[in-house]
Design goal:
- With about 270 residues, the protein is mostly helical.
- The protein has one domain (about 45-270).
- The chain is about 45% helix and about 0% strand.
- It contains ten helices and no strands.
- Helix 3 (about 60-75) packs across helix 5, helix 5 crosses helix 7 (about 135-155) and helix 7 packs parallel to helix 9 (about 225-235).
- The longest helix is centred in the middle third of the chain and has 23 residues, at about 135-155.
- It starts with a helix and ends with a helix.
Length: about 270
């Protein structure tokens, strides 16, 4: 069977990837993997790692890397483990085991999202913002957490230790808030396609239909986080533009196999979107 037809242009594999510029100097390499890792995956992970270290919309690079480190720390938190085992995560008392580099309110957000996202409630969200966090800061925190988890999970799945976190880059956040973002069915404001401006132009690659799903709008209050996350989605799953094509086999496994895995993982993780 022809390899190019089977895997498509998204399935190129490389043991050694050296992209242009400084993108390869951020601690992401899969040369030690016993498996063949596609080149577009390596490049997407390198870009995500560089983005993680750079100043964001509301957090500087140091805060973003600290959020990534705390995301990893949540996996060994005794309080999170006890809460996960309880009938309700809000029944347990105690404090999170943390690195101590972030305010307690942000640590709570990171740990809950990282360890028990299926049981988050509106009351929990309201308490999270009551400590002085803005909705934009909350969304950016979510973006850093899920980016870290996505890459760490992939790395562990192929039998490698997680990558060293990047060194924070200098610079200040942009503080750009979409003027068209509005409250609706979600806990935070989202940006509809008709309310986009050129400032949020990167969302054109995320909003691949005239009426994009809410999962694609979820982080749109911080467009750079939404765009960065879906660049990962394009590589780790499929680009949005080709998702409706159920017949062409773009990856090494069939679409049916992909959706079976995705459905099972979603059920285990309590993904109810």
């Amino acid at each position: 069977m022809d390899r190019r037809r089977l895997l498509g242009e998204f399935a190129l594999c490389s043991r050694l990837v050296r992209p242009a510029g400084d993108i390869g100097m951020v601690g992401i390499s899969y040369e030690a993997s016993p498996l063949c890792v596609r080149e577009d995956l390596v490049v997407a992970h390198q870009r995500a790692w560089r983005r993680l270290a750079a100043p964001g919309t509301w957090w500087n690079g140091r805060r973003r890397v600290a959020i990534a480190a705390e995301t990893r720390n949540a996996a060994i938190c005794r309080h999170c483990r006890d809460s996960k085992a309880a009938l309700s995560p809000y029944m347990t008392r105690g404090t999170h085991d943390s690195a101590g580099n972030l305010p307690e309110g942000i640590i709570e957000i990171i740990h809950q999202i990282a360890t028990d996202p299926g049981r988050l409630t509106r009351a929990w969200f309201d308490r999270a913002l009551s400590v002085g966090l803005s909705d934009g800061e909350f969304v950016e925190t979510v973006g850093v957490v899920v980016t870290t988890i996505a890459i760490d999970t992939f790395t562990r799945a192929i039998g490698l230790p997680v990558h060293p976190l990047p060194n924070p880059a200098n610079g200040e956040p942009s503080y750009n808030r979409p003027i068209g973002a509005k409250l609706g069915p979600a806990w935070v404001p989202m940006l509809a396609p008709e309310d986009m401006t050129e400032t949020e132009a990167c969302l054109k690659t995320v909003y691949v239909s005239a009426d994009p799903t809410f999962i694609r709008r979820a982080l749109s209050l911080v467009p750079d986080e939404a765009c960065g996350l879906f660049e990962l989605v394009d590589a780790q799953y499929l680009p949005g533009a080709i998702m409706p094509d159920l017949t062409t086999q773009y990856r090494a496994i069939t679409r049916t196999q992909m959706e079976l895995i995705a459905g099972r993982v979603s059920a285990i993780n309590g993904c109810f979107y």
